[in-house]
Design goal:
It contains 14 helices and ten strands. Helices cover 50% and strands 16% of the residues. The strands form two sheets. It has a six-stranded mixed β-sheet with strand order 8-7-2-1-9-10, sandwiched between helices. It has a four-stranded antiparallel β-sheet with strand order 4-5-3-6.
Amino acid sequence: MTNSTSPIAFLFPGQGSQSVGMGQELAANHVVARRTFEEADDALGYKLSQVCFEGPEEKLKLTEITQPAILTASVAAWRVLGEKGLKPDASATYIAGHSLGEYSAHVAAGTLQFADAVRTVRNRGQYMQEAVPVGVGAMAAILGMPLDRVSEIAGEAAQGEVCQAANINSPEQIVISGNTGAVGRAIQLATERGAKKAISLPVSAPFHCALMQPAQDRLAADLRALAFRDPSYTVVCNVDAAVVNSADAARDALIRQVTGAVRWDQSVRLLIEKGASLFIEVGPGKVLWGLMRQIDRSKTCLTVSDEASLAKTLAQVSAQVA
């Protein structure tokens, strides 16, 4: 089964999509998925698979474990799809990943070796956690307010500190990041000025803002030491909401992504402009499926995380190709 001439966009989830048990069913039923988890265990030198399948949740939520765990569960699902005959046509396939998910996207596109990516995102999680002392930074979701007004409020709330848009997820949902005081002031201003909701997020560090510069510098050294190849499929990167077609551009985008905003809304709109009408979220959770409904409800979005969702997606793609 190959895909139809209508382009398919494969989307890979980021941090926050994790749950205990993720990938377990696919690993139990498909050798290629089981081997993916074993490969990750070998690359990291501990049983990541056990934490994914059995928890405890507190351990799975540690950033340096969450990041390789979601990557591994996503790549396992991607490999099962391939084994089941969903062989994407390079000329009609687009790939994007939300933040951490961009690493899964590059593994799928052949830009990065899986074992290299697993070790890199473990370090990425560690560097991000260590970049800012606990309590110094915060993140908040601003719902029901356009980007220009959120950016204006963030600028006003900064008062010499850092406060900026970090995740432009959909027209309905923008996440800000920065110093705890500045983010608190922004929540208050957004609430006063008509946001549907402005809530602090339970995160361990202020991701995707200038406070992450120490993490970006450390990660840049790791990424420059890795072998990158030109992607086999067209990858849309977060930081520019633009296509990357070369190894160097892919590496550069992953480096700048640490302090740069995740331009997810714009990335999905670019995929739609390119002609994608079928979107498949590959990996744990349904976060990107939910955002897709806020961005453009007219597009079909499927998920692949377990046997039931795999069967449904394969059936729907077969029907489209038939």
